[in-house]
Here is the input.
Amino acid sequence: MMTYQTPESRYDSVQKVLDSLDGRECAILTTHINADGDGIGSEVALATWLRARGTKSYIVNPTPIPQSLRFLVPDESWVLDPSEQETVECCYGADVAIVLDASEAERIGRIKPLIENLTTVVIDHHPVGDKPIGGFSFRDSTASATGELVFDIIMKAGGPWLDVADLAIYVAILTDTGSFRFSNSTPASHNIVAELIRRGVDPEEMYRRFYGTFSYRHFKLLRSALGELKVDDDSRVAWMTVPSKDYQDLAATAEDLEGFVDYPRSIEGVEVGILFWNPTKDSVKISFRSNGAVDVNELARSFGGGGHVRASGAMIHGSLEQVRNEVVSETIAAVKILRNKR
Ligand SMILES: [Mn+2]
Here is the structure.
């Protein structure tokens, strides 16, 4: 027996999504820049379900699917490269676009113009910002992952449930809850996962794939980044920097930094943990993690980024040192303002 039930507050939205996807010939699915397990998992699950119902469905993302998530895609032909003319034509000829795990145009980058003229359905669990993508949206920031909302849709439709979708939703929830450690690990997310395990998903295999194996490069970078770990004793803000030279010399990618931001955040008594690195020479990527008191979504938004209340990020143009000074002092200020309010 299934213990999970879709929250009543979602009933209307789920029905509207089903209505807008019913009988479509061709759907374009997309997600945010630098997609994570939730973005890709939600796309694969929904595409699998749509295809089983006779809707040709393609994944068109602003940035490539990370290597670690490629195993989820059952057929390479489902994924289209937005820089190819054929993809552009395919998008123009589609009859619905589905944006997953993102609500703002900026987040989907170069995909925006490709789907501008299509009926759009947004499915997301991020707190909504100032410039949401138009069309119908099914949003709920109480959902552990966008994958949870996709589960609601397939459940309401009565399936079909395919193994590929089960695995993809599992990965969506697993990765967005940090392996069921974060505050979004709710009874609902556990109940969904219980159902997925009952249907055959192997938790140990998934754990090993995502958390039990790292490249040697990951550890080399971690060793040098830990050497740059700093804590402001007064405000309890901690930050870590990945040295630019090591990042470049090792030809690293964001994937190699998986879990790094958890180190500053996990220091005893720390309110906010921050990770800094240079994906390119003149831009700095920042990841924020809050232990609860500080809203890091708001903080990231003040730097042009965003995310969740406890986990967010931003990309800032400038030199590492200059950006780091500014971000650290703003974060310290945010902690102090909060403290004065208490
Ligand atoms: Mn997500």
Summary: Residues 38, 101, 125, 145-146, 176 surround manganese (II) ion (CB under 6 Å). The mean pLDDT is 95. The two ends are 46 Å apart (CA to CA).
